[in-house]
Amino acid sequence: MVEPTPRFWEVFFDVYEGLPRQGPGNRANAKRALEMCTDLPPEPAILDLGCGAGGQTLHLADLSPGTILAVDNHEPLIRRFNERINESGLAHRITAVTGDMGDPAFARGKSFDLVWSEGALYNIGIARALEVCRGLLRPDGYLVFTDAVWRRDNAPQEIRETFDLDYPAMGRVEDILNLIAASAFDLIGHFTLAGEAWWDDFYTPMEERVRELRSKYAHDPEATAALDTIAREPEMHRRYHEYYAYEFFVTRATAGRR
Q: Which of 92, 26, 29, 23 is CA-nearest to residue 53?
């Protein structure tokens, strides 16, 4: 397995920064998860960790009347998201800042009714993320997140290598449930993201973006090779989607435990 070069990451971000969202998910799945948080305050304080360009954050703003602090460690994505916030007239409800979810100085002095994270907590490890998020929540607050999981043990080598590059610790649903059971959270429920959640706002725009950039990088062999690698991801999903999934987990802080 070859480690990506700095040039690869340049092209990678050229692709990903132009997408509506940076991972699987859609409004319907977010709505289903949010509806499992049955007694949030009328206008909850929400923290969205790993917001990317804000696709899921805008869904949250549409589905809830609360205020949202959205955080990501990639400054260009936050700049783009702030443009979207201003264009949508939501600056009075959404604040987007650059920050490190593993060291949440951005939340100093604040606490939240709901911490939300789609496909981002794995960056610091789910066990560590559960600890960090518990410290950010008010008593009885909710943590809702998605994570990539294996559905079968016999996944072909090429798809395993794809995930090993970015998420070598990826496990099964049962592994996440065990971590939740050992944490200061109670499980409310979980469900698998529907198939269209991979395509509508993620892989379909990704394939379009790759096609757009092929002319830009037509005379750059290294960049073209990077685009070829990135284009393999949606194609691999077409071929091997039955071996893995994204799972939504809805949890609530256990009373009296921190």
A: 23
DSSP conformational letter for 93: T
Please identify every stretch of the chain with a pLDDT value under 70, giving residue numbers as ranges. 1-2, 256-258
Q: Per 3-state DSSP, what percentage of the chain is helix, strand, and coil (rounded to 5)?
A: 50, 20, 30
Question: How do residues 108-167 score in pLDDT, each as one tens digit?
Answer: 888 999 999 999 999 999 999 999 999 999 999 999 999 999 999 899 999 998 888 888
Please state the pTM of the whole predicted model: 0.95
Query: For the domain that residue 69 is a member of, what is the CATH number?
Result: 3.40.50.150
Other C-beta atoms lying within 10 Å of the C-beta of residue 181:
10
Rounded Cα gap, residues 51 and 110, in angstroms: 18
Tracing tokens 């939300």 back to the chain, one arrives at 116
Which domain, by its residues, includes 186? 21-195+244-252
Structure tokens that stand for 178 in this block = 């065990």
Q: How far apart are CA 76 and CA 161, in angstroms?
A: 28
Question: Which tokens go with 235?
Answer: 């194609």
Note whether 228 and 211 are within 8 A (CB): no
